UniProtKB/TrEMBL annotation:
Its EC number is 4.4.1.2. GO terms for molecular function: homocysteine desulfhydrase activity; methionine gamma-lyase activity; pyridoxal phosphate binding. It comes from the Bacteria. One of its GO terms (cellular component) is cytoplasm. Belongs to the trans-sulfuration enzymes family. Its cofactor is pyridoxal 5'-phosphate. It catalyses: L-methionine + H2O = methanethiol + 2-oxobutanoate + NH4(+); L-homocysteine + H2O = 2-oxobutanoate + hydrogen sulfide + NH4(+) + H(+). The modification N6-(pyridoxal phosphate)lysine is found at K203. This is homocysteine desulfhydrase.
Amino acid sequence: MHPDTRVIHIRVPVPESTPLSPPLYQTSSFSFEDPEPLADGLNHPDRSYAYSRFANPTVRALEDAVADLEGAASGIATGSGMGAISLLLHALLRTGDHVIAQHTLYGGTHATLRDMADRYGITVTFVTGHDPEEVRQAITPRTRILYLETVANPTGHVSDLPALAPIARAAGIVTIVDNTFATPLLCRPIEHGADVVIHSVTKFLSGHSDVTGGIAVFADDALHREVWGHAVEFGAVTDPFAAWLTLRGLQTLPLRVERHAANVTRIAEFLAGHPAVERVLWTGSADHPSNAVARKYVRGFAAPFCFDLAGGYDAGLHFQRSVRLIRLAPSLGGTQTLILHPASSSHRQLSPDQLRSASIGPGTIRIAVGIEHPDDLISDLDRALTFPAPISGQ
């Protein structure tokens, strides 16, 4: 063959050994000697690899790994956490359907449900998540989904999944649980009745602030097969490199979660005793409204939490400008400690009434504690809290 042809037709031999690191299959397509396995790969989510929008070995390795951690049957990796949320809602809902959801949801989920209400006439009933009778009363003939978060963003609200999921299952309703904040190490919602578990892979699973991704894992293969068809049509799947980075980060998840949890405890206790802080909403505290429920099925407290500054909105803006080591940034679950002011950022889509319902005040700060030395974090927090915000107008 001519050099022009040889540089195109490169073959990678399969060795008689197993790589220690999952290989990166950075390819859009796969070739075949026989047309039958090609067709099989385009029609089934777990057969041959034909085109990476349908399936890819690196992506499937991630899907299988997270499904295994969650005790699920199968998974679909997506380009972002919101990609997983939007895929599920659009795949499972039809015009006029009804959703039951807890009040304290991630702002992006609220926005998606509101958009679907405007476009498709989807109706939503919001519940506290603590009262089984409240869920029973909310069910209608068009209810299709019960949507919960293991640990809510940013208030740490925990719904009583073991009490609510059986009610949904008896009514033929799919229970979806966003488990991003707890991770599969601290909670496995499928063990408590969830049908689908979502993660923003961007957060703890990848863990290094270098990936944008999401995943949905399914207790039942039939539901996975149904949603997979929509994933292929929507093009919501992740790319192989993001999956490969996530697989690399996943290997240190137990070590990172252990350090996150230890640091969170130290920081929450420090803030609870600081005079510039009015309230600390940390699920691990005995006075948190969800503490008792959380201890039923969540095995630790590594998630971000929030605290309210005495000076309200202005104090929140001043505090964000005053930290030095801690970074002002969206997202969470990486190695660095990050803060955010929900009222002006992650939950900006919510009305004042919705913010109050979600226990988010004008001076609420969310802190996603990283894995730095806790003494350095406390020193930075203390300095930023010690110098008061300037009086408005000066």
